[in-house]
Amino acid sequence: MLYFRDVTILTPDRHIEHGALLTAGGRIEAVGALSEIACPAEAEIIDAAGCFLVPGFIDLQINGGFGHDFTVAPETIWAVAAELPRYGVTGFLPTVITSPLQTVDRARAAVVRPPAGFFGAVPFGLHVEGPFLNPQKRGAHNPAYLRAPDPAAVSNWSPDRGVRLVTLAPELPGALALVETLVARGVVVSAGHSMATYTEAQAGIAAGIRYGTHLFNAMPRLDHREPGLVAALLSSPEVAVGLIVDGIHVHPALVGLVWRALGSRRLTLVTDAMAALAMQPGKHVLGELEVTVDETSARLADGTLAGSILSLDVALRNLIRFVGCSVAEALPTVTSTPAALLGLGERKGHLAPGYDAGLTVLTRELAVALTVVGGRVVYRGDDRR
Fold it and tell me: In Å, what is the CA distance from 191 to each residue of 203, 204, 332, 344?
């Protein structure tokens, strides 16, 4: 049982100065003004005066980190999950890029079996990015493993079997039927690594696509006569998009345009981070491909961006700096919007009684001071748990 005292509570729909929040049994028990919520004798008191208490962050696309790559070694999902709370992350989708289908099976087996005594960010299931991608926009995906959409290949893909989100190119032959198959099982389908025209993208959205993977990246440029996938995603109110806000993948001016077009209800910040996250510059891997990492980016030998070394707390700070919005305005992009996309909006993404106690405490400078998962403190800024 935790009692947060005299903290500024920010959620997508509330702002409480001098607030208090009580957790019990892994869920939020009460939230409101400090004067309204008493502290039980058995509760651990967390004095967070001067800080923000916000819902825990959710990253929908992360390929690895801390020296681990999920496609090379899916079993390392839990090692990365244990470290992600330092960035305020309480839930995420470990992302497996284009690879043999047996690799996806290994990852599915790994993601549904937490090790004994595990405490850290919760993987909600896999984001399988590929292998049904357009070779012309493969980016850092190994072309040897790309394949045509095939329902037989995904016969055991569903949220209860470890797959939560799938990225594919909607223009490929058979893709629309595959979208319908996956959506019927509860899988969120995203358009990405695609050469889709506007009409082809609209057909994919009509079939059930509800997300766009790293908007602008690995898709045709927005053109005033051939608007393509970018325009289809932006102009469809039922679709959310992911954006890598590191100032490298997308120019800050374009981030601002997307923000003004979508707001926080259809925009999710993602990191697309790879194994080099939190590591020193040098040679690393993304899947089977070697990646050169410097102080700001990760690239293949030909200069192609290969994921990022961005963390989600930095992405949030970047968004606020790039577009000039408030903390409260930006928060849904890493909390309630990704939760709603995954169908978890009744349990995660808000601070309200009955919601899961996944919480992040931020300083006024938006540094992560403390992270809570399931009502347990899993990270403190001073590194003492």
Answer: 11, 8, 21, 21
Strand order in the sheet with 282-286: 282-286, 289-293, 298-299
- Domain topology for 58-341: TIM Barrel (3.20.20)
- Asked if pLDDT for residue 385 goes beyond 80, the answer is no
Average pLDDT of 294-312?
A: 94
137: amino acid identity, one letter: K
Distance of CA 267 to the CA centre of its chain: 11
**Active-site residue list:** 272
pLDDT in tens, 258-292: 999 999 999 999 999 999 999 999 999 998 899 99
User: What pTM was computed for the model?
Assistant: 0.97
Helix spans in 84-196 (H): 101-111, 175-184
Question: What one-letter code names the amino acid at 77?
Answer: I
Report how far Cα 369 is from the mean position of its chain's Cα atoms: 20
Domain ranges for the chain: 2-54+349-380, 58-341
Q: Are 371 and 88 in contact (CB under 8 A)?
A: yes
